[in-house]
Amino acid sequence: MKDFELKYGCNPNQKPAKIFMENGKELPIEVLNGRPGYINFLDAFNGWQLVKELKEATGLPAATSFKHVSPAGAAVGTPMSDVLKKIYWVDDLGELTPLASAYARARGADRMSSFGDFIALSDVCDVCTANLIKREVSDGVIAPGYEPEALEILKAKKKGNYNVIKIDSSYVPEPIERKQVYGITFEQGRNEIRIDDSLLENIVTANKDLPQNIKDDMKIALITLKYTQSNSVCYVKDGQAIGIGAGQQSRVHCTRLAGSKADNWMLRQCPKVLDLQFVDGLGRADRDNAIDNYIGDEYMDVLSEGAWQRIFKVKPEVFTAEEKREWLSKMDGAVLGSDAFFPFSDNVERAKKSGVKYIVQPGGSVRDDLVIECADKYNMVMVCNGVRLFHH
Q1: Fold classified for 195-267+330-384
Q2: Residue of 46, 163, 231, 289 marked catalytic
Q3: Catalytic pick from 33, 40, 52, 67?
């Protein structure tokens, strides 16, 4: 297959549309089911690169949940606590395979953003992972292969229209990449920077204690940022992204956005949220929406008279700001990665509020000394790796 005709481009009025290889070679993919669209393929190819690099960097199966050309979540396949299984709605599935665990983590960190995602898997999709995907609202999946039973499970999704793409894992793209904007062709060398431990040696803070598990989390943050629309910031904890701020013009707004998502991830683990009693038959997406409102500033949208009865069996008490602050104070040891330098120390101040103890960023700001001083104030460990990871 040298080209693949698309129904339309980014929008229905953008026709004709197709993907193809400029060098005339075969596309490195097989569409096993469905008819992926323009944005689907953008998410699929960016997501595949991300999980491929996560697997290479950590040695663990990896998954990502992509939406509109940025990851909503990314993770590697490590075991989950009972609390995480519950907040990710997978506590009824029994023991998960490492690949299924990776996707549960990637999907679960920010379920609001992951709704209707495109999935990328680093390994052959197994039956356990397919059964997890089966029950989520998703547009499609890309992987290097599928177990026969897993493929049949996926092909039955969305009334037989679920997009399933197989990619050649040995495919190596050309070193030069091109795209057009306003009829003008842009050309650049691919971003082939390898994210490994060698990028984490320049520790600029007084605290230089950087254990290997934190180095792995830093690599997860940097690889995630490499495929996130810039400006971007990523919070990581225990092998998974827990908050991604993408596409903001101001870096501190990236840090705030990602921090608020990391806070939500933490708040969902509070017993007050875990003990919410939903009415029978309420779907996972509706429960996600209700929890997001309940832990946010718009809590009366789900607690007002006439509203709560449609969602909860028992009316929950208000989750007060004081209770939320107390619970969030338990968050510690998170990693924060940034795709470019911090121009001001306000980013460090905001990161501290979400339990960040480790930071990796390029450095190079004229105010680096003030940023490092702020990190030292909180006994953080900061790495300046000298590598910018803009992605557009």
Answers
A1: Cytidine Deaminase; domain 2 (3.40.140)
A2: 231
A3: 67
Measured at the alpha carbon of residue 206, what is the angle toward residues 200 and 208, in degrees to the nearest 5?
A: 40
Over the stretch 5-25, which tens digit does the pLDDT of each residue have? 999 999 999 999 999 998 889
CB neighbour class for 189 (10 Å; exposed up to 12, middle 13-18, buried from 19): exposed
Q: Is the dihedral of CA 17, 21, 25, 29 positive or negative?
A: negative
275-318 carries CATH number 1.10.8 = no
Rounded mean pLDDT, 57-79? 97
Q: Which two tokens stand for residue 264?
A: 């939500």
Using a 10 angstrom Cβ sphere, with 0-12 exposed, 13-18 middle and 19 or more buried, the burial of residue 134 is middle
Question: Is 68 designated active site?
Answer: yes
DSSP state of 27: P
Burial class (CB in 10 A: 0-12, 13-18, 19+), 298: exposed
Domain boundaries, the chain: 3-172, 195-267+330-384, 275-318
The answer for residues whose C-beta is within 8 angstroms of residue 102's C-beta and 6 or more apart is 60, 61, 62, 63, 75, 76, 77, 121, 122
Cα angle for residues 84, 321, 265 (degrees, 5° grid): 20
Please determine, looking at this structure, whether the domain spanning 3-172 carries the CATH number 1.10.340.30: no
Q: What is the model's pTM? A: 0.96
391 is catalytic: no
Active site annotation includes 2: no
Q: Is 321 helix (H, G, I), strand (E, B) or coil?
A: helix
